[in-house]
Amino acid sequence: MSRFNLAIVGGGLVGASLALALQAGAKARGWKIVLIEPFAPGDTYQPSYDARSSALSFGARQIYERLGLWQHISRRAEPILKIHVSDKGRFGAAHLSSMQEGVPALGYVVENAWLGQCLWQALDRDVISWRVPAEVTHMQALPDGYRLTLNDESQLDCDLAVLADGGRSGLREQLGITVRNTPYDQSALIANVTPGDAHGGQAFERFTQDGPMAFLPLPDNRCALVWTRTGDDVQRLVALDDRSFLSELQGVFGYRLGTLKQVGARHSYPLALIEAEEQIRSHLVVLGNAAHSLHPIAGQGFNLSLRDAASLAEALLASEAPMGDLSTLQAYRERQRADQQMTIGFSDQVTRLFSSQQSLLTTGRNLGLLGLDLLPSAKSWFARQAMGLGTRTDV
């Protein structure tokens, strides 16, 4: 039976980022790492109008720069130069700009397929073993690690297992790790849209009586739409023909980017704040969406998971204890606790504040948006949260 120092269960964006963050140190230490992923990556990147995308914060760029990957990622990363925040039908609005914050961009929008391709191509197969396509069907705790059973009935042992298999992790449930599930009673509709005018690197956060909406700039003058609505209304919007859908979207978003010309495939999913009750055990770490799934409107979910992965890699590489040692994992957890609490709280409160139609709250949030434009210190605090720098003091 094969034995590894570390097994990463889930080779998506978070799992692959963790593998890359550990790669150089693992090579120097002679660690054996295996990455287990059910979907094999393609040999080449294939552009698609309907590609799903992620908003990377400026802090995420800094992490990938330290890993030597940003130059490659940036070839198809659309910079967010400005963010316009507004409340439909009300006077409040705020404007954030990269120039005012002294950074090249507030964030970047990257297609998931491109980011995944960049990550997988950067992995050294002599250091990171791949089991792809493969799936872990069972995890058994051992005194010194975990035994993983794969769907081909093969088994492997590891000193440390990292569970990064997504928000619907069956293995998390199998291990008896409970989650706090707080439904938002909303669903997200996502699609790519082509506007009539050039987006110019501007992102829009628009809050309406039916829920918040985000327009994020993509390459080729597309925009990634995240439109939050009630569940029944989302299904109605998904079922509309393209022309009717664009007309309804135009009525809510307005003409800030001219006439909306094209929309791609539409998808929807229910929204909830999900937090695992345990993120560490001896010889086990829960990471990514398996640890916490956030509302997408604030664009913080993947960025927080990436910071978790970078922090975990630093803790493992700095420790002289055996791999999987509980004290090392507890130190990682404590280090990330404040970041997680602040980011999850920021995302949740922004979502709830701008989804409420109570008159006092709508008046208060509009005054707050005006205050952001009038108070540089408040705007800078808000921008640092959006850029993933809220708990950082070194940048």
From TrEMBL:
MF-aspect GO terms: oxidoreductase activity
The enzyme's E.C. designation: 1.14.13.-
Keyword Iron-sulfur on entry: no
Cofactor(s) recorded in Swiss-Prot or TrEMBL: FAD
Pathway where this protein functions: Cofactor biosynthesis; ubiquinone biosynthesis
Domain FAD-binding: 6-338
Keyword annotations from UniProtKB, A to Z: FAD, Flavoprotein, Monooxygenase, Oxidoreductase
Record bears the keyword Nucleotide-binding: no
SUPFAM superfamilies found in the cross-reference section: FAD/NAD(P)-binding domain (SSF51905)
Similarity section: Belongs to the UbiH/COQ6 family.
Protein name: 2-octaprenyl-6-methoxyphenyl hydroxylase
Annotated organism of origin: Pseudomonas lutea
Gene for this chain: ubiH
